[in-house]
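Lab notebook, bench 4. We co-purified these components, and the gel suggests they stay together. Before we commit to crystallization screens, I want a quick structural picture of the whole thing.
Request: model the full complex, all chains together.
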Amino acid sequence: MANTFAYAETRAGELRRVALEAVTAARQLADASGGGEVHALIVGAPGVAAKAEQLGRYGADVVTVVEDAALDKYSPEVVAATAAQLIGAGEFRVAVFSASAQGRDLAPRVAAKLGVSMISDATSLELNGDSVVSQHPVNTGKVIATVTLTGSPALVTIRPGAIAPAEANRSARVESGKPALDPASARVVPKELIQGNTAQLDLGEAPVVVSGGRGLKVPENFKLLEDLAAAFGNAAVGATRAVTDEGWRPHSDQIGQTGRLVSPDLYIACGISGAIQHLAGMRTSRTIVAINKDREAPIFKIADYGIVGDALEIVPVLTEAVKEAKKE
Amino acid sequence: MPPTSGRSLPVIPARYQPKLPVDRFILAEQPDAEAVPMDVVFVGGGPAALAGAIELSRLIKRDAEEGGSLGEIEIAVLEKASALGEHNLSGAVVNPRPFRELFPDLKDGDFPFRAPVGNERVYFMTGSRAQRIPTPPTMKNHGNYVGSICEIVRWMGERAEEAGVNVFTGFPVESLLVEGERVVGVRTTPSGLQRDGAPGSDYTPPTDLTARVTVLAEGTRGSLSQAYMKWRGIGSRNPQIFALGVKEIWETKQPLDAVVHTLGWPLPNDAFGGSFMYPLEPNLVALGLVVGMDYGELDLDVHVLLQRMKLHPLFRQYLEGGEMVEWGAKTIPEGGYFAVPERRYGDGVVIVGDSAGFVEVSSLKGIHYAVQSGIYAARAIFEALKKGDTSAASLAPYDRMVNESYIMSDLRERRNMRLAFQKSGIYAGGVKAALMTVTKGAFPGGMISSESDAEAPRTRRSGEEFKPDGTLTFSKLDAVFRSGNATRDDIPSHLVVGEDIPGDVAELYQHMCPAGVYERDGDRLVVSPANCIDCKATDDIGPRWTPREGGSGAKYRRM
Amino acid sequence: MKIAVCIKRVPDMETRFKIATDGKSVDQAGLKFDMSDFDGYAVEVALRLKEKEGQGDVTVISLGPAVVQETLRKALSMGADRAIQLETDSVPFDGLAIARALAAELEDGGYDLILFGRMSIDSSNQTVGPMTAELLGLPCMTAASSLEIADGRATARRELEGAAEILEFPLPAVITIDEGIARPRLPSLKGIMGAKKKPLEVRPAQLGEQRLSVKQMELPPERTGGRIIGEGPDAVPELVRLLRIEAKVL
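Here is the predicted assembly.
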């Protein structure tokens, strides 16, 4: 029986979905090891305590709430000091963070403060005797490593989406905590949170690429793809050679053998039949979604998920669904 | 077979070929004030250059140890690929002879070859059958090794660097800098140009290097070698002619236990060539098809023929269920003895390896001649440096060493073999070649004269369509993808294309280019320069290839 | 400004990897190696800062066996001034062990700025930079996608999922660099020549205890493709579910 810690990430006062994933992972680990307690930490501006109840539903037994008007934005040094203090003071076997941008900033700081090693970007998590064992994609996902970590507490960041949040029918005891470092004395100062970041990501670097072909019919319809990309927030818009040759999109947007070679986590091909020269530019993408009217289109042969139908009808629906998903 | 369309056939490609831009390759300019001072610059980083650089640095080291007065000599090897070996492609069955000379302290087992040749089989093919025939004497490979030129070149590069040679990868040479008749240095290509030729944000200007001797080791159809010979009026008795080889590497389920060569199908009767299939490992197979570029079909397509060929049971039995992991193409100079330039040196310059045409086509070999010519060049350069005179007269011993060696005696013995096929087709040509072999070249005596590939009329179409299946056979774009080609797509075109190319000529280019650079669109020619993998096929008969940004093109690993 | 950049030698990611016979590493045969992508950006940032100031000194540091000198030489040929190899037989997987060795080297170096790539492209742990900062007690910014430095203070931006944040901190500091911030330059021919004469020191690495290790490596299942999940807009909810649960990309 061992207690487990979970860091509940917030943004602008709202719990992020990855917070529920971390709590769920901690709950599952505690249950699997004979039923220890799950302690969650949530940090934010006054009012964030209201989120503690939800963490309870997803499996937290204790939620420590640290509220401070100066903590409306993520303050790396304050949160790291506070988490390290809590984890160091408790008898935690494992401390779970998300491998989100914030979690990947925070967890290594906490680990170093505690003088312990950590597992990054885990896609699975289990206790095995003295060790925490996880799978972790390496070499851009081309190889899966199984890693083991000895010693307590063991810190782990889990890949967003790797563990689905599940309600556990619990209610948490809420405890009020204080920042372990006065926010005013933090050297790294958060200045601004830019929401709904639509900064143009480079095609080669964007984790998500939304791409369009002749099936979009007229250049104006690329607006639909831009909306979908904006809904993801970390997406860039690409095009086929047919489209760039028509002048619908700039040549720099062309994905394919003679254009850009991209390999994002997610590639969404809209109204693209899948000429081999296009496939050559994107086939190493980790997950490929194809939306096309023609069931026989070659793009479906390499797509992980295909939807047969008019991209002009389907893309706006997908955009709304992605917005919903991102809200959580 | 009559042409399916009578329109404007035959096509004589030479009529549409732009002139070699000699004035771009040969600049009467001094190296700029910032030039990197070198003593000897090798242009190209293949087996000839690396052998030369290794031999030269050894001679210099020995001289220093013996108290010689040469002092510090800086040697540079400039390679256009981003790493050594990435632009090298060969069969290859390698004759180890010059490697033993270059590395006297090493044994054959130390060389980066894969395995000694064991079983050998030669077949005459028809569309459905493969008839095993006795191995012709010129194709017997006992004592030779199967190898990958990429691996050989990478290994030689390590030896060169250990010896103190400056190996610069990612630096193509755009021009020779000359003073009077003398080559005094080279200028690299710029990089970071935008499509319109204007400098982009990553622009790097060209770099000049000074050199007392420049060694042209550019490989097949070297731009500077061609330009230098044209500029100096260096001819050959016959024009150089070329073949195009398209090659694939397969990981197979079925092991291959022999070096295999085939003749006949899928080539038309009047095309010269054949296929090879070599085991790099039992389950790692190199296979390719080589076709002389004087073929008569407008739409003959070596890449497509190779794809068709793989469907033949002889190949299919090995490839089925396997995976094609690498693809590439390269031209091969196969004019032989009479096409070798009448001299391969000048003031401050020597020409080695494929750039000088040291290939013997009936045995399908060139690597060992390249290495040997590099060794001879190094010896001549060393003596010239010692004399403090790198004029043509001082470098002339290089030619003498080559002429008195097995390089030229091998080429001479088989001097008319390839040429017989240009005149006679495969059957009569085959009979003549057999007679030549038996008589060691005495039959028929004299010289069979030949015409350049660009002059060869393309008289008919096969009209055959081919649809790749994506598992055993592949489209050109799919293939180019597996060459590792990741050329920046917005660099200026490096291809000099003739004006107003008619549709039929565009069609010839489309089929000849294995990388899908050229497409016929109605009566228009569409060019996709970024597809180019520097095989130089169309450079032989049409659009001229010129050096472009360093690191562009293929990234071969085991070719 | 005195800048250190910590860089790693990694295999070319275009490779089709094979698992070595030990079952817990990648087969090294035929692999090409280069500087980790993100580290190239970090070197570029350092060089631009130095060029902007018109003076400064850039030290590149790599941990590993003798072959990492190749990667250090590349950074020198791009324009770094000196290099340090922290010698080990192999690069540990445990980020804290690496951070300890680096911190021991950096501690008394008097650096105004210590740069890392956001993560190494091979082991993808993304821990060494911030751990080193903690061990040194320095302010730390991770995954900077832009960076401005003025009057001893830095302002940097970090990309988040669907958002971004701006942070400010004083120097000296540790910063890990995200890609895209400044495209790494190609070494010039003169740079390559010059790099041969620049100082490269070799010192033993002080790694200490390692608790994180690789037990096994395997290749992910091959893409099957060809799965049509539905027709028209009605298939969208199922798509979103699969992207989330199965593909784990949403």
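The interface with chain A takes residues 195, 470, 475, 477-478, 480-481, 486, 489-490, 516, 528, 530-531 of chain B (CB under 8 Å). Worth comparing against the SEC data before the next meeting. The two ends of chain B are 36 Å apart (CA to CA).
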